[in-house]
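This follows on from our talk about sequence and fold. Please put the record directly below this note.
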Amino acid sequence: MANLVIMESPTKSNTVRSYLGSSYKVVASKGHIRDLPKSTLGIDVENDFEAHYINIRGKGDLIKELKKEVKKADKIYLATDPDREGEAIAWHLVNALNIPKEKVRRVTFNAVTKRVVKESIKHPREIDMNVVDAQQARRILDRIVGYKLSPFLWKTVKSGLSAGRVQSVATKIIVDRENEIRAFIPKEYWTIDALIKADNGKTFESRFFGLEKDGSKVELECETDAMKVFKAVEGKDFLVSEIKTGKKFKNPAPPFTTSTLQQEASRKLNFQSQRTMRVAQELYEGINLGSEHGGVQGLITYMRTDSLRISEEAQAAAKQYIIDKIGVEYYPETPRVYKSKANAQDAHEAIRPAVEMIEPKTIKKSLTSDQYKLYKLIWDRFIASQMESAELSTTQIDLTCAGYIFRTSGYTVKFPGYMALYEESTDDVKANEESNTRLPDIKEKQTLASESITPAQHFTTPPQRYTEASLVKFLEEKGIGRPSTYTTIITIITTRGYVKRDGKSLVPTSLGEVITKLMCEHFPDIVDYKFTASMEDQLDDIERGKTSMKGVLNEFYGDFKVELDKALETASVNDIEIPAEETDIICEHCGSKMIVKNGRFGKFAACPNYPTCKNTKPLTKPEEEKTAKKAEPTGEKCEVCGADMVLRTGRYGSFYACSKYPECKFTKQKTRPLGVSCPQCGADVITKHGKNKTVFYSCSKYPECNFSSWDMPTNEKCPICGGMLFRKKGKNQLVCKTEKCGYKADIAEETTQNDNE
């Protein structure tokens, strides 16, 4: 064997294997194979922060196999991901596998397509140690902060807690917003809306604006102010004093970066960031699209980027598509070029379709529901980013009555431009409510009657809690974290119980607030937005070769150690008490609001006056829930008597039963469509429950079709024979069940290294 290609992901390895000839063997490291030890700090802070890396437990057999392959190969292509983490994994592979320097070739794939893979293999390079050092510096910083701060929290709050460098800042951001909401004092204001009737009988609304004498805007701050205007204009006619018309051009949003993809997927698809990045990884690594679309294809470019740059080839492909499929008038006179932020990592393009001409609708049957939704979002955004601006005709009408101005405005779309395909959403409610009022045909100096005048009281509202989308946007704006870390940050602060979800909102827990307060008192630099952002800039400088890893670590650790020593000296054991979480349950013994406690069987409600009052209650009421479920309608009719079917619960799980039981005893098993076609007849595959609530999969046309499987069928196709792949029950593994094929592949799981980051 002349050439060995080592990648991170088994899924991506299978894709690349299909592109390269028999002279290449492609294997996977399955993420990192070396890391810092979990049981100790693993950093010699007294000896230039030398890191002690060890082989990750459980990867011994894999490392042995990789070493055997390395010895057989003449050239070793390290094709790990094209980012800091991937560069570091390549460096670790060289050291752990003892790869001779003359054999090493570093290659990266911005997109996993046949053309890109083959072109990249032709142009290998050396491992970039500046990039490796930037990754090591982040890893060491996070390890030091996590391992040094955690004992402080154990001493002052309770054992088992941990703090981190960037995650502590993210928690503080959410706590700060909650404090803003609590401190907010609502302010009263009033509006007055007039329903105006035009000559043709159509009506439109106009809102009080201000004074006619000088055109100034007036805020109605109380009922007295509002009633003064209301009484002056009630029952009177309005004069059309001025009509302003104009043009407004709206430009398309740029193609996606990691941050904007996570934000838009949250708003439009209701995806959490972790789900977005998992699906994006699948689209990047490759999907079997069938022979009509070239077999296995990576559908998008690399999904961890903050660059807005796109290649000339992609730009030309978008131009051709817009002209051919949408219309020549939808393409601007000159191609659109977007400028990235000053601190953007410009090694990769923006997120775009890797194979520009594969429209989402043409490959929908080859994708899962999530894959199709996200791919279509990326496709639409990219194509729209290259389209002509939308042209809007705007109208503003001022009406006067009794010395007051009432104003209404609206717009019509004269030319949709990019809006014909895609329009960006926003977290700003007011921006989303931009007026699109259709105004009747009226002229200046007309006198119009009012049908009604409506004064209304309002109160200003506090700032909204952060959602994942708005938090990611804030982190990006402040320079906190980088594209590859946003998902990890949110995952850690929620799983550690510092932040909880309330619908889409992120809310700090009592524990999160206590730890944030403690961090602000003793480690103000760690939770300072500007300080954290400056650390990111220093990591970027290491990558660019402008500064050294050891210099950055020394500068940070000196000040941090002073703060740590002082905090440990002044803190006392169990100095901080975590406030109890109140419930709405009232203790029937003493009348107090019960609080949430943790027991061996989970959370329960307890009286806060313990031990005087020892009353406890379960937080859920299983019997009430069970009873409610028995009466839940299903929308189906009984096949025997035609009565409604309801959902009931039995010893083997949920099932459908006739609502007229016991008069009619017809029942049938509860099933759920899987969204996969039966490999035998093409009908829908459904999920069923067997004994002991075990799940299996069956054809919906049973018994006409006898297909069933304990392993879950998927929409993915075998890269060898094209048969259906099944997810092995209880394992992260895809298998082909086609006779004599035997294809198997581990399902890649995104590797994150966080320790106590």
User: Anything to note?
Assistant: Residues 474 and 480 are 8 Å apart (CA to CA).
